[in-house]
Amino acid sequence: MRATVTRGESALTISVEGELQHQLPAALNDVVVVHVWPARNPLPALGSDRPPTRIFPGQLPNRGVMRSIERWNPGAALDLSEVLPTASLNDRAQLDRDFRTTYYDPLYKSLSQFGGIGPLTQDPIAVARVLPMLSMYGMLTPPDYLQNPPSSPEVLRMSRADMRELDLSCWLTQPCLIVMGVLDEVPLPYPLTVDGDEVESSGQVFVRWIMPLPDAVEWIVPDRVPMGAVRPGAREVKDAAKPDDAGGSE
User: Fold this and answer.
1) Between the CA atoms of 128, 93, 80 and 136, what dihedral angle is there, to the nearest 10 degrees?
2) How far apart are CA 103 and CA 216, in angstroms?
3) What is the pTM of this model?
4) Is residue 176 classed exposed, middle or buried when 0-12, 13-18 and 19+ CB atoms within 10 A define those classes?
5) Which residues contact residue 184 at a Cβ distance below 8 angstroms, ignoring those fewer than 6 apart?
6) Which end of the chain is more exposed for a tag (fewer CB within 10 A), N or C?
């Protein structure tokens, strides 16, 4: 597998080449492929207007993309160039949009009839939906009212009561490839015994696989501070450095 950043005439692009195969005991269903790019988003900044407004609030640390595959059979080649076509590194919000359209929007639609409140475990595809969300919980889009409130925000609160150890959010701060999916009607991946006797089992197994990608300095493409903006705290430092009106500087 190889990921390549190409400098074009107008923008940087990223492409992925290679194939993946698995030898799991059954087909992997509801597959999610997350590609975290070697491109950092700019830090939140304050605009030059008065009072200053925040620029780029609530962005993910790194840019990237997420794609879904319905079924991946054992031994079948998964062509990454088809799953992850060439994309522009200029898109700061692609991964955030993918999270919203895949998780937030469908849940809001299904729970809005209950006032945005309800247990996700009643979802008939709870494993395929909830476990990937728990795997990226720290990076999911916060409700609109916590950012720049629209006139009629679609508010959905998603609380995490436990399973914090499943959170892979730290991986979304560095270049990597994350693959997740569900095996249906398979035995436990480890033996379960009772009084020395192995117990037969069958059910769903959630699979996660992570591949770190190169993060050499020349790969990282940091954004400069947006035009007309200042970094948080810069104005305060500048103002503090000015002499007072009465005595001037010594």
Assistant:
1) -30
2) 32
3) 0.73
4) buried
5) 26, 27, 29, 204
6) C
Sheet of 87-88, strands arranged across: 2-7, 12-17, 87-88
Give whole-number Cα distances, 207 to 61, 88, 129, in Å: 25, 29, 13
Contact 107, 156 (CB under 8 A): yes
Omega within 30 of 0 (cis) for the link into 191 = no
The model's pLDDT over 22-38, given as tens digits with 9 standing for 90+, comes to: 999 999 999 999 999 98
**Largest Cα–Cα separation, the chain:** 88
Sign of the alpha-carbon dihedral angle for 93, 34, 83, 87: positive
Q: Where are the domains of the chain?
A: 2-99+125-151+161-241
H/E element, 66: strand 62-72
The reported pLDDT for the residue numbered 89 is 87
Phi, psi of 133 (to 5 degrees): -65, -40
Plot region of 233 (φ>0 → left; ψ -120 to 50 → alpha; else → beta)? left
The residue behind tokens 């925040």 is 54
Nearest CA to 14 among 39, 48, 47, 43? Answer: 39
Q: Among positive and negative, which fits the CA dihedral 26, 3, 168, 93?
A: negative
Radius of gyration of the chain (CA): 23
Instruction: Name the token pair of 5.
Output: 């950043």
